[in-house]
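Ticket #220: bound-state structure for coenzyme A.
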Amino acid sequence: MNNLQYIVQISQHFHILKSIDSFEKLTKYTIPLDDDIGFLLPACKLHFHNDKLISLLADWRINNSFAFPTKFKITKAGTINWLENIVYKNEARILFFVLNNHRVPIGHLGYANCINDNNFMEIDNVVRGVKEGDSGIMTYAMKSLLKWGLDNFSPARIYLRVFSDNEHAISFYRKLGFIDLRLIPLYRFEKPGVEYFESSEVETHKNPDKFYLEMVYKNL
Ligand SMILES: CC(C)(COP(=O)(O)OP(=O)(O)OC[C@H]1O[C@@H](n2cnc3c(N)ncnc32)[C@H](O)[C@@H]1OP(=O)(O)O)[C@@H](O)C(=O)NCCC(=O)NCCS
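RESOLUTION: The complex was predicted; output attached.
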């Protein structure tokens, strides 16, 4: 697939899934996990006003804030804004909910930064919200997400960035076939109400406050 075909394919496919406006269509686009352990459900318009789901997502974000580069007060209004404006309106990004075979939401994961000159897809927002039970479901979910990305978009690379001190996640990704590529220095910044870690061209005289480990999927 050349770069233009890749970009058209990503834009169209992500748009179709995110624009789902009926539960009938949502069922059609559900991605099953192997061994009937559950499935992936695309996050779409139908979810913006699902109060129970929004509360769940806000709780998951609070409980897993250590894994995110930006720290701020999590609210339900902010979570709706994130789903609608940061995920839904970003044509290079898609999120899937991970449901078990009783249709209980367990976590989420997706892709981001998929529109670029290199046909690269980045794994995004991998979180197990429900920590107990459904052992192995996030591994199955990652395998299905990888297969879906490979089958539909033939990317040149699938990669991810994880904090280098997040040992459990790194071991989880290594078991799935990701290998270490490089460390990316990060610096801590503050704005009113927000603390965040970012790479920086200008802060390089300082010692980094943290590192991302960039990992790539080796089976490509
Ligand atoms: C990263 C994260 C999603 C991994 O979730 P997880 O619960 O470890 O993943 P799984 O659901 O696949 O469970 C794997 C465990 O189930 C076990 N398991 C049981 N049956 C299994 C099966 N058939 N296949 C795979 N694993 C199985 C594995 O041995 C593994 O146990 P271990 O952790 O003791 O090695 C989770 O730790 C998380 O949400 N972390 C916080 C957020 C985060 O750091 N995200 C990453 C940001 S980059």
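RESOLUTION NOTES: The longest strand covers residues 178-191.
TICKET STATUS: resolved
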